[in-house]
Specification:
Elements: H1 2-20, E1 40-45, H2 51-66, E2 70-75, H3 80-92, E3 97-100, H4 108-117, E4 121-125, E5 136-140, H5 142-156, E6 160-166, H6 172-190, E7 194-201, H7 207-219, E8 226-229, H8 232-244, E9 252-254, H9 260-268, E10 274-276, H10 279-294, E11 306-307, E12 312-313, E13 315-318, E14 321-323, H11 329-333, H12 339-342
Parallel strand pairs: 1-2, 1-3, 3-4, 4-5, 5-13, 6-7, 6-8, 8-9
Antiparallel strand pairs: 10-14, 11-12
The chain binds beta-D-glucopyranose.
Beta-D-glucopyranose (BGC) binds next to loops.
Length: 355
């Protein structure tokens, strides 16, 4: 009696396992061989330079594999020609869908078109590709990212001289961040309360460029009270330059990405705030949508259609969260960083340790 129940239970479990992969993760069976092939997703990344992209890659892989797919990853190291070749390679590997983080907002259109021509669906991940018929754009609310940064800064420095270091001119996000800063700053600029004494762009998001801009301004004897650095890597370089002039913590600096070193600088007092973008949520959402697209399911997305210069693209948009020393708990609770890692250099009295 007991044995037969156990047998029925085993058969039931076997049935569950053998059918569950069919929901998303497996292509239809070849009737002759009954061999299931996992879906293949190609991920063409522009860069792994910043800490966040390694999380994107790992979470995408984790979720796609959970859903029974396979992820092939390429990294173009900020080289558009290389990205094109890598997309060519991914197509040759018979991927079912391409997730691309474009290096160049315009040039990447040819990579996307190449995939589309091969019958492969394309997701523009975190950065928008202009003028290409892509299937989905998934990102954070990048205007909001810029607005948060400027809001925290004007609250702390409502009058004075500002410097803005934008990211790469080839990255569509940078124009959105910039629009966000300007949305907030414009009334202050019009009133003459705030003056932008210098604004520049960092090619390929190179921190060296940000460092050089700040060094040059300081060497020229320019006085400024606040710096908007488009991400935490640039903020790090800005603060390094400031610290060489003993001005770290005196000039207010904001960044975004909630990099570990960014969070450490916030609790130490050399960076005012950052913006946390829940990368796991982005990657998991993108992976779920990718698998649904491959399975030709109807897509329900939460964002408005985005015009990319030629086409209206479906969008999925995730909210960013501003972080300063008072709500650091958010990134800890979310498992983004460990408390000990953030507060590593800070004594229980809030002062930087001198060791
Ligand atoms: C992303 C940022 C990242 C930057 C540099 C931007 O497109 O939104 O999170 O820091 O690229 O890679």
């Amino acid at each position: 009696m007991k044995i037969s129940r156990l047998l029925i239970f085993c058969v039931f479990i076997f049935y569950l396992f053998s059918t569950s992969g069919c929901i998303f993760g497996q292509k239809t069976a070849d009737p002759k061989t009954q061999n299931y092939q996992p879906f293949k997703i190609g991920l063409a990344m522009a860069t792994l330079q910043e800490e966040r992209w390694r999380r994107d890659r790992d979470y995408l892989k984790e979720r796609i594999e959970q859903l029974g797919g396979e992820l092939l990853v390429q990294n173009a190291n900020n080289d558009q020609q290389k990205q094109l070749q890598q997309v060519e390679y991914l197509i040759s590997q018979k991927i079912d869908l391409l997730i691309i983080v474009p290096h160049d907002l315009n040039e990447a259109a040819s990579a996307a078109q190449m995939a589309k021509k091969a019958g492969i669906k394309v997701i523009s991940y975190d950065r928008l590709i202009r003028n290409a018929a892509i299937d989905l754009y998934i990102s954070f609310d990048n205007y909001k990212v810029g607005e948060f940064m400027a809001e925290y800064l004007v609250d702390k420095v409502p009058t004075g001289n500002y410097v803005i270091i934008n990211g790469a001119p080839t990255d569509n996000n940078c124009y959105m961040f910039n629009q966000g800063y300007k949305n907030v700053l414009t009334p202050y600029l019009n009133d003459g309360k705030i003056k932008i004494i210098f604004e520049a762009w960092a090619e390929d998001w190179k921190p060296e460029a940000a460092y050089q801009y700040i060094q040059t301004l300081l060497l020229q004897g320019k006085k400024f009270d606040a710096v908007i650095a488009a991400n935490d890597s640039l903020a790090s370089a800005v603060i390094e330059a400031l610290s060489e002039w003993r001005m770290a913590g005196k000039v207010m600096v904001v960044g975004h990405d909630a990099d570990l070193s960014g969070c450490q600088r916030i609790v130490e007092g050399t960076q005012l705030m950052t913006v946390y973008k829940p990368i796991r949520k982005l990657a998991y959402q993108a992976a779920d949508i990718a698998m649904a697209l491959v399975a030709n399911k109807d897509l329900k997305t939460n964002g408005p259609p985005i015009f990319n210069g030629k086409h209206f693209i479906k969008s999925e948009i995730i909210n960013p969260i501003p972080i300063n020393k008072d709500n650091m708990e958010i990134v800890i609770k979310d498992g983004f960083h460990r408390r000990d890692d953030i507060y590593m250099n800070v004594s229980p009295f809030g002062k930087k340790n001198n060791f």
